[in-house]
Amino acid sequence: MKLTDTCIDCLMSRVVFECGLASADPKLTEATVTACRDLLDSMKGTSFLHPQIASAVHREACRMIGDPDPFRELKQRGNAEALLVCREVRHQLNDFRDHVLASVIGNTFDYAVRGHEVTSDFSRFFADEFAKGLDRDDTDEIFRNCSRVVYLTDNCGEIVFDRLLVGYLKAHGSHVTVAVRDAPILNDATMDDALAFGFDRVADLLTTTGGGAEIGLDPDKMPADLAEAISQCTIIISKGMANYESLSEYDNLPPVAYLMCVKCEMIAGDTGIPRGSKIAVLRT
Questions:
Q1: What is the Rg, in whole angstroms, of the alpha carbon atoms belonging to the chain?
Q2: Positive/negative CA dihedral, 249, 179, 106, 149
Q3: Quick one: angle between helices 96-106 and 158-171, nearest 10?
Q4: Rounded CA separation 258/238 (Å)
Q5: What digits encode the pLDDT tens for the residues 121-134?
Q6: The pTM is what?
Q7: Each residue's pLDDT tens digit, 239-280
Q8: What CATH superfamily is the domain 74-283?
Q9: 183 and 190 in contact (C-beta within 8 Å)?
């Protein structure tokens, strides 16, 4: 997806949020916002996709505030909250659809997205959303394509439920490659999170999307092992909006299953699915 004025407003609000997480004073916050907006303006109208521009802006914000991982406490909190709920509900997850639904509910752990709030009571929220089910459900068709899977993770918190879904796929004969972020950016899951939850013990290959602090997927930056896995896979399971914003722009991909909560109007407009929907959509 390309950058729009709405995307710019949301992106800059995230920069301010990052400054707050790092306890930046008003002068440093103003300087950071100015530097990030100048960088953003220099990239507008180029061929860069939204995730590539957002990644550059967030790297600049972290450089200005002197903190490479301002979301660290929120990531730890999200993982802890999700783990508690996971222990409560995992016995309720019986089939592929249940595991996908749990993973999509986990995708709501996404901070500073305009118009979206992370719940303060995830246990009750999970129960309510699980009862409602998916708003778009292509899970039967997705599962039929899951002999060789490349699984692109997104946020902390939800990665707890990703682990259950990957485990389910492995138990049912899938070969699974899991890719996490190469370095901290926003509250996205990194290798440290993946190792903490045992992805190395269940995935056939655990790797990163490459490029350092980079959201989405940039084919020019991904490591050779991930590129090879994508060339051989029968499906990509893509978690979250940034991965959607990248992959939806690329041709010559295998089938892609987009698993996410639609948290902004731009994604809603692009997918034709209302904001707030929980979706598992297969695009071939």
A1: 18
A2: positive
A3: 160
A4: 5
A5: 888 989 999 999 99
A6: 0.94
A7: 999 999 999 999 889 999 999 999 888 888 888 999 989 999
A8: Uncharacterised protein PF01937, DUF89, domain 3 (3.40.50.10880)
A9: yes
How far, in Å, CA of 134 to CA of 199, rounded?
25
**Residue 103, both tokens:** 């993973």
Q: How far apart are CA 246 and CA 131, in angstroms?
A: 31
Return the closest-CA partner of residue 79 out of 142, 36, 122, 49: 122
Give the tokens for residue 208. Answer: 């990163």
pLDDT at position 144 over 70: yes
Domain residue limits, the chain: 5-65, 74-283
**Residues in contact with 90: Cβ distance below 8 Å, sequence separation at least 6, in sequence order:** 164
Reference 187, options 23, 72, 77; nearest CA is 72
